Amino acid sequence: MKKWMMGIGALVIAIGLAACGGNDEKTPEQNPDTENNPPANVEGNGEDDNSMQEMNDHSEMDHSSSGEVPEDLTDAASPTYPFGSEAVMHANHMKGMNEAVATIEGAYETTVYAVTYTPTNGGEKVENHKWVIHEEVENASDEPYKQGDDVVLQADHMKGMEGASATIDTAEQTTVYMVSYEDTETGEKVENHKWVTEEELSPVE
């Protein structure tokens, strides 16, 4: 009888140990697969990457303007896209701009610059801003500026731009256009936007 009871006890213990071993699942902290492969609902650096790309966007750019231009700005004599005509824009200075059909509000002959500057309101450095024209440079020289030249901006396209120190990234003698168009993303009417270059326009088909 005593041996029979001992046999039953050993059997119970064996069953208990087997059950414990079967439930020995790894927790997320212990599971090496979980550590090396984050769950599907945990995003990586995608949002951070997008934020970095948007640091130098034109989200605070004044899309519309009063239409006033510098007094010494020269009208283009025979622009490819005359006043009142339409053209398709191929530029992404701002969201909703690329592929929009624009109405030409003015065409001018000047030197156009892409510039890097630090806003006067303490914002992040803006790199390769497009565009600032020669007549929007404070005390502009008679001759166009060159890449690497330092200037002070008089343009107010974006907050903190006017009075900011800037470095010329590119310089090109061309025709620039002031345009009105409908934002392709929001449907908002943008009036007298400054500026779009000749190379950023194509005829409406």
What does this structure look like?
The chain has three helices and eight strands. It is α+β, with helices and mostly antiparallel strands and 205 residues long. It has a single domain, classed as SH3 type barrels, CATH 2.30.30.1210. Strands 1, 2, 3, 4, 5, 6, 7 and 8 form an eight-stranded antiparallel sheet that branches. The N and C termini lie far apart (102 Å). The N terminus is likely disordered.
Q: Write the CATH fold name.
A: SH3 type barrels
The major β-sheet equals: 8 strands, antiparallel
Which structural class fits the helix and strand makeup?
Answer: alpha+beta
* General form: globular
Please render the helix and strand layout as text.
Layout (H helix, E strand, L loop, with lengths): L1 H21 L9 H5 L9 H9 L19 E2 L10 E4 L11 E17 L8 E8 L16 E3 L12 E18 L6 E9 L3 E3 L2
Antiparallel strand pairs: 1-3, 2-3, 2-8, 3-4, 3-6, 5-6, 6-7
What are the main properties of this structure?
SH3 type barrels; globular; single chain; 3 helices; 205 residues; 8-stranded antiparallel β-sheet; disordered N terminus; alpha+beta
